TrEMBL record:
PROSITE patterns named in the record: TAT
Designated name of the protein: DUF839 domain-containing protein
PANTHER family: DUF839 DOMAIN-CONTAINING PROTEIN, SLR8030 PROTEIN
Cited InterPro entries: PhoX, TAT_signal
Source organism: Symplocastrum torsivum CPER-KK1
């Protein structure tokens, strides 16, 4: 099935000044360019592109290559442990893990980037630091940081504890094991959070750090020993200030120790940066009681497994209800260590889409990146006067949080998360995996409902969200926001496919990437909404969705939406990549997109016939090995090649490319390279191996590809046996022209 470009153009049209999903009040333009109903395999590759697309691991329609030549040219492929860019482009490493930042160091696993300009070719780069990759962090910590941690001393007790982990919170304060766990946990928390660094472009066109007085770290441990607590606003403060409750109370009121799990984010027109706390449940308990208080820190034990260092909040006694928020930081204010705005809800936040227009309500969009997670919108009580006025931050302290209900007919509505909202959950039978988690009452926590009759009984027992939570009016509202995901399930929000980015276009419409259509222990997606190009469910490779508020009003309670599957192999209607993640719109309305395939799936071999050892078909999840490393793509939205995808960059081994952000002149593209070497650690002595893949031509003919795959990574130093380090780079053209001219003319 070929991708229908006409649908794609309609889908992306609003950002290019065309009409999407019907006529919009803000635009009366119609399509004027010619287009075909499918991507042509015979057209030359990027005739108007000013960059030569990279060779993908698989044949792409955009190359215009004859089918017989595809099997020849793609019979071999070599993966490179580097950030690979087109001819005429280069990159400079601006900061890497361990570099000095203020009185601390540049953190680990950099993600979202924000560049707030303070002058001509200078400004403040704010960087998120998401989590700790256990293999590389434990293997290289002493080499990079110059400090030894007691990993070896913990091996035996961790092995003995196995999956149960170690409950360091319950150990006596004078226990040596507790001290060692605290030391590791604190260093891991320091390597998360945010970095603010000042940079400028030098006479050679390279970006360099200037190490100004505003350079600083906001870490997962800020406030623990240094008094640099984070602040909070909104109804959840009433819960934070409790002296006692049904569950755990940390006794420091509305002050908060640190920020961690900082994944994607957003930037406001008034120059503040929004950092989204995502997988906080790895470090602290997520479930809460009906009054919004946390489960005990003992419920999330300390562990080091093959993926992460988890339970860092256990030994310190962090209250779980204070994590999973949006943090706002003013990078230009050296005394600002962040504010968590609780009206925006507590869940596994990904990006933040900001819509701030004069004389309209402020709207913030964010997704809950879990299987079965929801799309949310915050709407302020008061209107924006001047979008660039820093006083707009006060609008985040009063408003309402809504969650999205998608209807199969392309319409939708917003459900308020407030005590009076009716309990009206979907039935488990409509979601992949057949399970929806709900607030468990009266015990607290969650209950996984798997039968429609049990869901019906739940609806009969609880009539409104207020029936599920306790306290006075403000405390109930705070508890609902703290328990936002499970409250949204109870209210009937649509279970979606891991929403990983929310970007507001200049016309006010919203783009959402849904990165993965598989189900899991957290839940699954609505099968009526999320389907592959042939109607299949589940569909692993991901979607991009376009949402337009009715009346083009940020405060509208209804919307229209359209979805088109982008991920997948060309032979099946995909564009040649898997798991779309962060989006970036340039001034011309074109889309730049990075992918987020799981590290352990990169370059995984796919045997002939695509059958496993038992003769069963390889899963879509494992077929992601065909797509190579994570990558960055350019998708024009105008011209004769609009709707096609061109490979712009390939990341180093085991990494994720994240947080793309342009300078205002678009001569520089900042990019974060996260967790290189995450699976195999340091690449030793240029180790590589040969693997075989069952590839397909663009029309579906199978052939075998032999691929050379490096084992581990030495990026960014790129010297033999160098430790891999997450780092932020500045991509530029050697001719110093804007990168955004890399488009169809």
């Amino acid at each position: 099935m070929a991708l229908k470009r006409r649908d794609f153009l309609l889908f992306l049209g609003a950002s290019a000044g065309t009409v999407a999903l019907g006529s919009l009040p803000s635009s009366e333009k119609k399509f004027s360019m010619p287009f075909s109903n499918s991507v042509s395999a015979s057209s030359p590759a990027g005739r108007g592109l000013s960059f030569k697309p990279l060779k993908s691991p698989m044949p792409l329609p955009t190359e215009g290559m004859e089918l017989t030549k595809q099997t020849q040219d793609y019979s071999t492929y070599e993966v490179v442990d580097d950030l690979v860019l087109p001819e005429g482009f280069t990159y400079d490493v601006i900061a890497a893990w361990g570099d000095k930042v203020g009185d601390s160091r540049f953190g680990y696993n950099n993600d979202y980037l924000s560049f707030v300009e303070t002058g001509n070719e200078e400004g403040l780069l704010t960087v998120n630091h998401e989590y700790i990759s256990s293999v590389t962090w434990t293997q290289t910590f002493d080499k990079v940081i110059g400090k030894s941690l007691p990993f070896a001393d913990l091996k035996e007790p961790l092995d003995a504890a196995a999956k149960d982990g170690i409950n360091a919170y319950a150990l006596p304060d004078n226990d040596p094991l507790k001290a060692k766990i605290r030391e590791i946990s604190k260093e891991a928390l320091i390597d998360q959070g945010l970095s603010v660094i000042s940079i400028r472009k030098d006479s050679n066109g390279q970006w360099v750090r200037t190490n100004s007085q505003v350079d600083r770290r906001i870490t997962g441990a800020s406030g623990l020993d240094d008094g640099r607590y984070l602040k909070s606003t909104g109804p959840a403060i009433a819960v934070f200030r409790k002296k006692q409750g049904q569950g755990y109370v940390d006794t420091i009121g509305d002050r908060i120790i640190g920020s961690f799990g900082n994944c994607a984010g957003g930037t406001t027109p008034w120059g503040t940066v929004l950092s989204a706390e995502e997988n906080f449940q790895v470090q602290v308990p997520e479930p809460v009681y009906a009054d919004g208080t946390s489960f005990s820190p003992e419920e999330r034990t300390f562990i080091i497994d093959k993926e992460e260092v988890g339970g860092q909040g256990n030994v310190i006694g962090l209250a779980g209800n204070k994590y999973g928020w949006i943090v706002e930081v003013d990078p230009a204010n050296p005394s600002d260590y962040g504010t968590k705005h609780t009206w925006l809800g507590r869940y596994r936040h990904e990006a933040v889409g900001v819509r701030a227009e004069a004389d309209k309500k402020l709207a913030f969009y964010s997704g809950d990146d879990r299987r079965g997670g929801h799309l949310y919108k915050f709407v302020s009580n008061d209107s924006v006067r001047n979008p660039k006025d820093k006083a707009n931050s006060k609008l985040l302290s009063q408003g309402m949080l809504y969650t999205a209900k998608f209807n199969p007919d392309g319409t939708g509505s917003w459900i308020a998360l407030q005590p009076s909202t009716p309990v009206n959950p979907d039935m488990p039978s409509v979601v992949a995996g057949g399970m929806i988690p709900l607030p468990k009452r009266p015990e607290g926590g969650i209950v996984k409902v798997e039968k429609d009759e049990d869901m019906t009984a739940f609806k009969q027992q609880f009539k409104t969200l207020g029936d599920l939570y306790t306290g006075n009016a403000q405390e109930k509202q705070g508890a609902i926001l703290i328990d936002a995901h499970f409250a949204a399930n109870a209210a009937g929000a649509t279970a979606t496919a891991r929403p990983e980015d929310t970007d507001v276009a200049p016309d006010g419409s919203l783009y959402i990437t849904f990165t993965s259509g598989s189900s899991g222990s957290d839940g699954g997606l609505d099968n009526r909404i999320f389907q592959g190009p042939k109607g299949e469910t589940p569909y692993e490779y991901g979607w991009i969705t376009h949402l337009i508020e009715d009346g083009n009003d940020p405060a509208a309670m209804t919307f229209r939406w359209k979805m088109l599957s982008l991920g997948g192999e060309p032979a099946d209607g995909g564009l040649g990549f898997a798991n779309p993640d962060n989006l970036l719109l340039d001034k011309n309305g074109n889309v730049w997109m990075v992918t987020d395939m799981s590290s352990d799936k990169h370059n995984k071999a796919v045997p002939k016939g695509r059958l496993d050892k038992e003769g069963k078909p390889i899963s879509q999840s494992d077929l992601r090995g065909l797509f190579g490393n994570n990558s960055m793509w350019f998708i024009p939205t105008s011209g004769s090649d609009a709707g096609k995808a061109y490979l712009f960059a390939m990341g180093p081994m085991d990494c994720e490319t994240t947080g793309p952000f342009f300078t205002s002149d678009e001569q520089t593209l900042f990019l974060a390279v996260q967790h290189p070497g995450e699976v195999n650690g340091i690449r030793l002595d240029n180790k590589a191996e040969t693997r075989e893949y069952s590839m397909r031509t663009t029309d579906g003919q199978e052939f075998i590809q032999t691929r050379q795959v490096p084992i581990g990574s030495n990026w960014p130093d790129k010297t033999v046996n160098a430790p891999p380090k997450p780092a932020v780079v500045a991509i530029r053209r050697l001719d110093a022209k804007p990168i955004s001219t890399a488009q169809l003319s």
